[in-house]
Structures are given as structure tokens and as C-alpha cells.
Amino acid sequence: MKVLVTGYSGQLGYDVVREGKARGYEMYGTSSLDLDIRDKYGVYTYVEMLKPNVIIHCAAYTAVDKAEDETGMYLRVIDYKSSEKELNLTEVYYGLALQMLTYLDIIITHSPHIVGKTANPAGVLYFHVHNPIINASRMLTIDEIEAEIMKQFKMNGLLLSDENVIRLMDRSLDNGSSQIISAGFKKDGSLTKASKVASQEDFVDLRSYIRNKYVETGNDIISGVVDIDPFKLKDKLPCTFCSFKSVCQFDRSIDSNEYRKLTPKSKEDILEAIRKDGVDLD
């Protein structure tokens, strides 16, 4: 079987092609350089030439959802991933994970043109695209199996700490933890401590902080800052999957080659530091 996969340069597209090859399929992955999916005639020509049996569309796998109530309109960003992921504020603080909050900043900033009015951030979420396997010590009913599968697809991220907005995302949630999103309610109606939320002011500070990070990084690039300076955050190293090892030639056995060690911080400490480092969004 011949399979065409768009978005091959992204993580999801790459994993789909790799999995297909492992299963013996004839896989063809395309990036935006090979195939511009916005070009209708270009897509038609490419498909006619390749004649695939199946097309799997993995390009632009990020969605924007909106909801509205009497308090206003809210937008959230959902990113579909082939592996489990959550928003790590430590990585945001050090400039390692800016993508999702950048998406959110763009859609909120340009919401009057996108949705016709000024909108508020509802949050950012990661959706794990996978085929879950349910383990159980006893025979489960169909309803129990469906409930277990639903747990495997629970979205992680950072949400607005507004009870009404949380209920807009999960209308079945009364109390306890949501099966859909990383939030829950106590019996008194307040959010649980385990809820992954931030205030409206926190989202404003985060948006301004990442803008400042882009300016800082851009100025470094223009100034010619190209130091070999890989980070180490707990056990995470950028060198593990780096495509430029042969160019960089960072070698830990050389005394002068040291990792830039980053210290994990709590959510509260990060938000406090970001409040000090942010810039005015206006």
C-alpha cells in the first residue's frame, strides 16, 4: 500500500511515516517545501503523479477553539502530538518551549480580525494522538472500557482559572476531576489544587514575557552570538536528537565544554519572575 503523509517535517508526520514503514507500507512524507497544501492545483498534480492509496494529513496539526458566554469570547489552542506532553513552565521560562503560548498570543492579539471581536485566552492544551491499550485485572464492561479510554485522551496544558470557562470546556463537569481537561472542582465549586490553571493576569504576563524572549533572541542572532552552549535541564539534553552534532562538535570530555545547567522552578516562582521580566503588550 502506498501512503502519502503531509507535514513530515513535524513530529506527528515523522512518527506516522516511521510507524508505517515499520509495518511494511510504502510511505511518502512531504513537508511544506515539497508540497504546499494551500496550493490546490499543486496538491492535485502531486497526488496524480504519486497516486497514493491513502493520504494522511498531518500538516498544520494545531487547532483553535472558541466559546462565548455573557462575560465575553474565549479562545484556546490545541496541539495534537504523537507523544504525551504538557506545558512545562520551567521550559517556557528558559525559552525552550515558546510555541504554544506564541500561538495563543497571536490569536488573542489578532482576535478582532479572526473572530470579529476582542477575545480572552482560555488556555493551551496538548492532545495525545494514539491508540491506547487498556490494562485491567478483571473483565470490564463496555462503559468502563470507554471511561478508561477517555482517561488516556485527557488533555494537558494550562487553562484560565475561571470556573465558567472551565465549564464551557467540559459541560459534564459538576465536581471532581474532568475526564477531558486538566482541571476539576471541589464540592464548594472552587477549582481543585491539582487543576493546571493560571489567572488572566498570568496569561498577560506570559504573553509579554515570550515577546521579550523573541526580541532578546533576535538581538543575539543579529549580534552574532553563536556560542556552543547546550543546556541541561534535569536529564533533558538538546544534544540527544540534534542534527548538527558534526558541525557543533560539542564534546563533554573536553574541559571547556560544559552544559549550561538550568534549575527547575515551581510554577509560583516562575510566574513571579515573569511578572518582573515582562513587557507591556500595548
Write a structural description.
With 282 residues, the chain is α/β, with parallel strands linked by helices. Among the domains are: 2-57; 62-198, no CATH class. Helices cover 35% and strands 21% of the residues. The chain contains 10 helices and 12 strands. The chain has helices at 11-22, 40-50, 89-93, 99-109, 111-114, 142-152, 163-169, 200-222, 245-248, 267-277, and strands at 2-6, 26-30, 54-57, 62-69, 72-81, 120-128, 156-160, 176-177, 184-185, 197-198, 231-233, 260-262. The chain has a 5-stranded mixed β-sheet with strand order 4-5-6-7-10, sandwiched between helices. It has a 3-stranded parallel β-sheet with strand order 2-1-3, covered by helices on one side. Strand 8 and strand 9 (184-185) form a beta hairpin. The longest helix has 23 residues, at 200-222. The protein is globular. The protein starts with a strand and ends in a 5-residue tail after the last helix. The relative contact order is 0.11.
